[in-house]
Amino acid sequence: MRMEITYASPSSPNLTALAAMPSSATTKRTVRIIPVQHPTVTNSSSSSSSSSFVFSVWLSKLRKKTWMEWIELFFPCFRWIRVYNWREYFQVDFMAGITVGVMLVPQSMSYAKLAGLQPIYGLYSCFVPIFVYAIFGSSRQLAVGPVALVSLLVSNVLSGIADPSSELYTELAILLALMVGILESIMGLLRLGWLIRFISHSVISGFTTASAIVIGLSQVKYFLGYSIDKSSKIIPLVESIIAGADKFSWPPFVMGSITLAILLVMKHLGKSRKHLRFLRASGPLTAVGNIPQGLPKFSVPRAFEYAESLIPTAFLITGVAILESVGIAKALAAKNGYELDSNQELFGLGVSNILGSFFSAYPTTGSFSRSAVNHESGAKSGVSAIVSGILMTCALMFLTPLFESIPQCTLAAIVISAVIGLVGVSLAFVIHESANPHIAILGRLPGTTVYRNVKQYPEAYTYNGIVIVRIDAPIYFANTSYIKDRLREYEVTADTSTRHGPDVERIYFVILEMAHDNYVGNIPQGLPKFSVPRAFEYAESLIPTAFLITGVAILESVGIAKALAAKNGYELDSNQELFGLGVSNILGSFFSAYPTTGSFSRSAVNHESGAKSGVSAIVSGILMTCALMFLTPLFESIPQCTLAAIVISAVIGLVGVSLAFVIHESANPHIAILGRLPGTTVYRNVKQYPEAYTYNGIVIVRIDAPIYFANTSYIKDRLREYEVTADTSTRHGPDVERIYFVILEMAPVTYIDSSAVQALKDLYQEYKLRDIQIAISNLNPDVLLTLSKSGLMELIGKEWYFVRVHDAVQVCLQHVRSFERGSNNSSQTSLALSDDKPSSYGQLLKQTGENLPISDLESGKGRSPLSMDRDSHLEPLLSKEH
Which bin fits 881, alpha (ψ -120 to 50), beta or left (φ > 0)? Predict the structure, then answer.
């Protein structure tokens, strides 16, 4: 199959003769044909040979690997260990690890509460997974551990299976870590990290925005001092909050609000002033019930009888974890100048979750906030993660008694302050802008063949009877309606505001240029004991949840790991990351850890603190060990509103408010009216080029975006507006009362869907009823093919498709000239725009009684005649298929 593009010459006598014959009798113009080559479709045999070639190349790469490369393949830590500069990197790694570790202690307890677990399991989830990920993960700045989003998923799913206060609930959370780790490890080993590319930012932002709002609302109970119903939906949460308003208590509200305010202020200062960046991690250590002291014991996850029912959740968590982790990991890797392997990340996250599940950990992944802090702290390697792990070990062994008096409202404040940044407010504006693109009426700049937006270039003039409209955005489903409406408005405006043109009543052409504080309570002191996860009878029911948490953990962990790897100049393997996270969760589950993953915030803190290697994670782990062994009694008096504040502060950033703006931008694309730059044949936005002038009766519109279902209505609306505007404000042209041509300049339109095609058909029919002709110029080949297959090309007429805007304008003006000559020769006064209606141009000439030369139509009344700038070929674009 081939497509032929034919170009007609303006000198062809057939063009002039159009006025003297009906459309059915119109003869073809002299054309030249350019065949457009299409790619050859490969057959099955060539495909199979290509597959065998790829397989042979893959085998040859495996054979060439040295023993050290094989070690680095499964243990990425050797990549930075071999070249680690202890003098230069250890100090910054150590400080980054300490910073992240200090940040991790209150966050982990807060997120455990969010997951419906005792705070000690948050600390357990920071113990084994951190060390395991430092070995198997490929990101050097990713901070792995409990995260708000995964914790919320765990709570939403498990609360429907077991009572959060029961031992079964804890067993299911640990089993979920094992399932998520296995899924992540399998994905890493099977090299499935490429699947992450198909998850768009809009999907992630929308998901995290909703999650952040739900997380924040779920923590409000610790601020208000009364219980609210658990739900993963916003409306029931709000209804429950309102229903219990009579139980409101001032003390937790005041304490939680103050804590939240302090956290947000410190976070702002830490971001805006580098010398105060340590404040991003220092606030939460203020003062939860009994917290067991000591490291978690090894234990095999139980409750496998619920595994089947947890599979969907495991897939979901896996997806979320991958998105969150790999996203930040890639960003940090890019910033630090190294390449991140998504598959290695998946593997590393998987191993960390698998091993973590054997040490009482629930699903974990990379944390946005902690990874950012890790990066900003200067982390250069996994040493920072090791330091954080050592710090967590110390906290488990020695510091848990200190955590027992932390108010829960304080932990709630930590949660809220963490999630505030997750709200993607800007996305809403982008979405609105996309669905309401900019559409401009174009006018011709005096002395040129350039068309610009008449609003930007007041001197640009338009032609009576012709509206030139430019849509400055791709046209797609979200903005087609808007574009159609704007075109209708522009048509009406042009009818009443055409400037500097002869008196004409209407438009014939539209040219488109296309109370009391609730404390945490008792926290056991000491490291968790080894115990095999139980409750395997629930494993089947936990399978969906495990998949869900695995997804979430991978998204969070691998994302931040890649970002940190890029920032620190090393390569990150996503599959190794999955394996590392998986092993950390598996081993963690044997030490009472619930699912963990890389933390955005802690990884960021680790990086910002200067972490250069996994030593920082080891230091953090040692700190957590010390906290478990000695400090848990100090955590028992922490108000739950404090932990809730920590959770809310962490998830605020997950709210993808910016996604709404992206969607808006997509549904409201930029559309510009083009005018001709004086002395040229170039047409530009009349708003950007005030000197560009338009033609009376012609509106040139450029759509600067793909056209799809979301923006068709907006584009139509803008075209209507520009048409109306052109009628009332045509500049530098003879007085004409209305628009006759609308030229759509569609060079920026790279895609058009069926909704947009239908919108253009509807617009054409509307214009046809008012004797307005649409001309389309500069089509993308793919869009041209779509219009041809949809029948729109035949509907509008192949003679109204042009390669350039200038060609479309010249043809429109030639039509006016042909009718002028037809009137002088007393010939037929029908223009072949309709088979059954007399020409509006003939009526126009009868009403005005004027014989206007084409130069006057081009240059405007009272101006020096301009040359036609005639090319050897005007280029109306025709399409045939053979």
Answer: beta
- Are 301 and 538 within 8 A, CB to CB? no
DSSP 740: B
φ, ψ of residue 721 to 5 degrees: the values are -60, -45
Contact 732, 503 (CB under 8 A): no
- Between CA 816 and CA 585 the distance in angstroms is 76
Mean pLDDT of the 74-84 span: 77
Rounded CA gap, 117 and 159, in Å?
A: 11
Maximum distance among all Cα pairs of the chain, rounded to whole angstroms = 106
Q: pLDDT (tens digit, 9 = 90+) per residue, 171-200?
A: 999 999 999 999 988 888 887 765 655 555
| Strand pairing category for 451-453 and 439-444 | antiparallel
Alpha-carbon gap, residue 381 to 378, rounded angstroms = 9
Average pLDDT over residues 643-663: 65
Would you state the structure tokens that stand for residue 682, as one six-digit string? 């170039």
Terminal CA-to-CA distance of the chain, rounded, Å?
A: 6
Integer angstrom CA distances of residue 323 from 370, 536, 562, 790: 16, 28, 11, 38
pLDDT tens-digit map of 747-801: 888 888 877 888 788 888 878 877 888 999 988 888 888 888 888 888 988 889 8
Q: Which residues of 738-748 are buried (b: 16+ CB within 10 A; e: fewer)?
A: bbbbbbbbbbb
Of 379, 404, 267, 362, nearest to 328 (Cα)? Answer: 379
This prediction's pTM: 0.47
Residue 171: predicted pLDDT: 92
What confidence tens digit (pLDDT) does each residue in 351-393 have? 999 999 999 999 999 887 788 788 888 888 888 888 988 988 8
Q: Could you tell me the domains of the chain?
A: 86-199+284-408 (no CATH), 434-513 (no CATH), 540-655 (no CATH), 669-822 (3.30.750.24)
Q: Of 656, 516, 645, 652, nearest to 219 (Cα)?
A: 645
What's the rounded Cα separation, in Å, for the pair 641 and 850? 83
Contacts of 161 (CB under 8 A, 6+ apart): 168, 169, 172, 306, 309, 538, 541, 542
- Please provide residue 289's backbone torsions phi and psi, each rounded to the nearest 5 degrees: 45, -175
For residue 174, the SS3 value is helix
Residue 694 structure tokens: 């338009």
Of 736, 803, 221, 252, nearest to 465 (Cα)? 736
The mean of the pLDDT values for the chain is 73
Q: What is the DSSP letter of 37?
A: P
Query: In whole angstroms, what is the distance from residue 496 CA to residue 833 CA?
Result: 23
Kind of pairing between the strands at 463-471 and 509-513: parallel
